[in-house]
Amino acid sequence: MPELPEVETYRRFLNEVILHQAIVALEVRDAHVLGTPEDVLRENLVGRQVTATRRIGKNCFLELSSGQVLALHFGMSGDVGAYRHDHDAPRFTRVALHLADGLRVAFIDPRKFGRIRLTESVAHYQQAKKLGPDALDVTATQLQQRLSPKKTILKPLLLDQSITAGLGNWIVDEVLFQAKIHPERRANTLVTAEFEALHAAIQLVLTTAISHEATYRHFPASFLIHARGWDESATPGTEKHLFCPKHSKTKIAKSYVGGRATYVCPRCQPEPVKSE
Ligand SMILES: [Zn+2]
């Protein structure tokens, strides 16, 4: 699933190929991914330019010269691409914007859970979709203000896009590991230093993931993500990736928290003491 790091990578790509170029045609190959009727989209896109790109959490925005905004959500399997000739269109291209210089920008989505829709502004979309501040912009103080009144466990709160937008399942596990906080701690038990550690870990994990363009096998060996077994290439032919990068004899434990697969180091992230 495209998470914040993937969507930021897509945004940077779009920013490079699409900015300040007239859109000369809208090609819809599968209307299933449209959240706005095709004729309305065409009317608002053709003849216009993209003046800026933005992102909040997993949502990417193309600001149009008309003042309106095209909002892209990538669902389970969305991606972007560019091509020049019809026969070079990437497989599963659902929609393409044809630009004045001949380039075509593809919205690719094999599983079709992604959506393209027109919205009046980024702020309007953010409010309508109840999105909190982007995870890369949120400050330690904001995190503390939003989380410390909550008596529930931390991990589902961090996944809640209305508290902070853009933290997905593996990212939350990595953040909590780097911050040395157990996912089942109650939010109201965290002290200021822990909110600061949480904030620093969010920055570390997201900037690392973006700098590697979300290619997990290139992530540092100090990351927990390798224990998920999505790739073996960090430590080929060994089981090293199943152990804590800081405690080579402690195996990373897998459990389910709020119904989501969760990985922790039992030594780095001590379980909360049951006080009641
Ligand atoms: Zn550890």
How would you characterize this protein structure?
- With 276 residues, the protein is α+β, with helices and mostly antiparallel strands.
- It has 2 domains: 4-128, MutM-like, N-terminal (N-terminal domain of MutM-like DNA repair proteins), CATH 3.20.190; 140-264, Helicase, Ruva Protein, domain 3 (Orthogonal Bundle).
- It is built from 7 helices and 10 strands.
- A 4-stranded antiparallel β-sheet has the order 1-6-7-5, covered by helices on one side.
- It is globular and about 60 Å long.
- Zinc ion is lined by residues 244, 246-247, 250, 265, 267-268.
Concise structural overview:
By secondary structure, the protein is α+β, with helices and mostly antiparallel strands. 27% of the residues lie in helices and 20% in strands.
